[in-house]
Amino acid sequence: MRTLIIGGGLSGLALAEMLEARGQDYLLLEARARFGGRIKIEHHDGVGFDMGPAWFWPGQPRLLALTERLGLEKFDQFSDGALTFEDENGRVQRDRGFASMQGSWRLKDGLGALTQGLVDRLPAARLRLNAHVTQLALTAKGATAVTEGGETFTANQLVLALPPRLAAEIGYTPALPADAIHALKSVPTWMAGQAKAMAIYDRPFWREAGLSGDAMSRFGPMVEVHDASPAHGGPYALFGFIGVPPENRGEETILRQHLISQLGRLFGAAAENPVALYIKDWAIDPHTASASDRKPIYAHPTYAMPQSMVGVWDGKLHLAGTEVAPQFGGYLEGALEAAENVLSTLDS
Question: Quick check: pTM over 0.85?
Answer without folding.
Answer: yes
